[in-house]
């Protein structure tokens, strides 16, 4: 694949909501002309109310605010926050609004899973953090582990172009009328730093495998170390083989997956793959301090990615996703150190023969869960074509 790398960016890695939400709200409060915000979940909680209030303030002072929320992840938003935001002057679109709760209709899982913001064409945020509290579950005693990146520089061009394009497409699908956006304020892509990076998306048109292929290329060229932290880790054959091949040629490969989970079926399916990875020399840590929601990786302390894409069929074959890939030693080292700290503070290593893998019955149940997840994805998402 060909990646369009762009030099001259300034990237700030933001860890968890405690760093991300103040930065996002400050950018919204400083907006002068235009705000785009895309999210899978916009919760009706303290965090959601804070961002909603900032969006209303911006609209009240004449800023054009465009908010897009996924219809499945944002069901509570539609019921609780959407009307008051619209009444406050915020332009709201719902991506594929849910009409029934239990439907398994074809393409139901083709969701908007991106978490993007672009303000005045001057600053953007790309990552995996939804608009929801880090402590939305009473059982959580530590913040949900996740990352986003504050972006300034030339990458603003493709990020702004992408959010504009999706807004126009969803607007057309919602109103059955072609609605080209009026001229936006100028994007300011002049150099702001020295970081080389690229903005990658996944959709069902021209960018079906862009994010997955970027991972595979990085794994194929790895020489020393690969660290992958992914919330919902259910890779296909190509992805598994790429990691195992790297481990076979002497690369240190480490995976961090969920220990504390909100989707037990998916967790069981992930655990079904542990034996293959452990036998191939891959180290696995489950994160138990809180919920792992990250979708990040570091290769050889020079290549890194942060974004919304999990390594599962939902993200890689169905949903709209967005990731940054970065070639910069300082950024990669920063992310690596944060992942090391997370594994040290909350990770439990899985051993090949230890009790962490469970009984034989548990392993059978894990493989049953793996088969069921793949079946459900096929029924509700992409059928036989993939």
Tell me what you see in this structure.
This protein is an alpha+beta fold and 386 residues long. The chain is built from 12 helices and 15 strands. It has 2 domains: 6-175, Endonuclease Chain A (Endonuclease, Chain A), CATH 3.30.870; 200-382, 2-Layer Sandwich (Endonuclease, Chain A), CATH 3.30.870. A 15-stranded mixed β-sheet has the order 4-3-2-5-6-7-1-8-14-13-12-9-10-11-15, with helices on both faces. α2 (46-60) links the parallel β2 (34-39) and β3 (64-70). The longest helix is centred in the C-terminal third of the chain and has 23 residues, at 360-382. It is globular, with a radius of gyration of 20 Å.
Overall 3D form: globular
Structural class: alpha+beta
Spans where pLDDT lies below 50 across 5 or more residues? 382-386
- The number of distinct structural domains comes to 2
In this structure, how is the largest beta sheet organized? 15 strands, mixed
Helix content: 25-40%
Please name the CATH topology of the largest domain: Endonuclease, Chain A
Query: CATH class of the largest domain, anyone?
Result: Alpha Beta
One letter per element, helices H and strands E, the order comes to: EHEHEHHEEEEHEHEHEHHEEEHEHEH
Spatial separation of the terminal alpha carbons: 19 Å
Determine Rg (CA atoms, Å): 20 Å
Mean pLDDT: 91
Oligomer kind: single chain
Q: Any idea what the CATH superfamily of the largest domain is called? A: Endonuclease Chain A
Give me the secondary-structure topology.
Layout: E1 6-15, H1 16-29, E2 34-39, H2 46-60, E3 64-70, H3 75-80, H4 82-87, E4 91-95, E5 115-119, E6 123-127, E7 147-152, H5 156-175, E8 195-202, H6 210-221, E9 225-230, H7 237-248, E10 252-260, H8 264-271, H9 274-279, E11 283-291, E12 295-299, E13 303-307, H10 313-318, E14 321-327, H11 329-346, E15 347-350, H12 360-382
Parallel strand pairs: 2-3, 3-4, 9-10, 10-11
Antiparallel strand pairs: 1-7, 1-8, 2-5, 5-6, 6-7, 8-14, 9-12, 11-15, 12-13, 13-14
């Amino acid at each position: 694949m060909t990646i369009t790398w762009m030099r001259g960016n300034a990237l700030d890695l933001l860890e968890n909501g405690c760093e991300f939400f103040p930065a996002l709200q400050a950018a919204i409060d400083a907006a002068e002309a235009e705000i785009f915000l895309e999210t899978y979940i916009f919760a009706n909680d303290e965090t959601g109310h804070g961002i909603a209030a900032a969006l209303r303030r911006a609209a009240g002072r004449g800023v054009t605010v465009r908010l897009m929320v996924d219809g499945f992840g944002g069901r509570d938003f539609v019921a609780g926050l959407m009307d008051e935001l619209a009444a406050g002057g915020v332009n709201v679109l719902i991506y594929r609004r849910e009409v029934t709760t239990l439907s398994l209709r074809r393409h139901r899982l083709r969701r908007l899973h991106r978490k993007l913001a672009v303000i005045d064409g001057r600053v953007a945020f790309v990552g995996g953090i939804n608009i929801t509290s880090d402590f939305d579950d009473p059982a959580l005693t530590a913040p949900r582990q996740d990352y986003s990146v504050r972006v300034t520089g030339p990458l603003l061009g493709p990020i702004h172009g992408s959010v504009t394009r999706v807004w126009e497409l969803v607007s057309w699908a919602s109103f059955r009328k072609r609605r080209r956006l009026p001229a936006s304020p100028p994007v300011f892509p002049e150099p702001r730093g020295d970081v080389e990076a690229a903005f990658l998306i996944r959709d069902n048109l021209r960018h079906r495998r862009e994010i997955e292929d970027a991972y595979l290329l990085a794994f194929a060229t790895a020489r020393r170390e690969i660290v992958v932290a992914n919330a919902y880790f259910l890779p296909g054959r190509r992805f598994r083989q790429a990691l195992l091949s790297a481990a076979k040629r002497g690369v240190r490969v480490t995976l961090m997956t969920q220990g504390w989970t909100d989707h037990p079926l998916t967790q069981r399916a992930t655990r079904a793959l542990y034996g293959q990875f452990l036998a191939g020399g891959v180290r696995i840590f489950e994160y138990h301090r809180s919920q792992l929601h990250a979708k990040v990786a570091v290769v050889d302390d020079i290549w890194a990615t942060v974004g919304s894409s999990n390594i599962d069929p939902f993200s890689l074959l169905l949903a709209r996703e967005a990731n940054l890939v970065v070639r910069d030693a300082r950024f990669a080292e920063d992310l690596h150190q944060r992942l090391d700290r997370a594994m040290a503070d909350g990770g439990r290593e899985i051993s090949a023969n230890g009790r962490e893998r469970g009984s034989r019955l548990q392993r059978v149940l894990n493989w049953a869960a793996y088969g069921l997840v793949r079946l459900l994805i096929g029924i509700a998402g992409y059928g036989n074509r993939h």
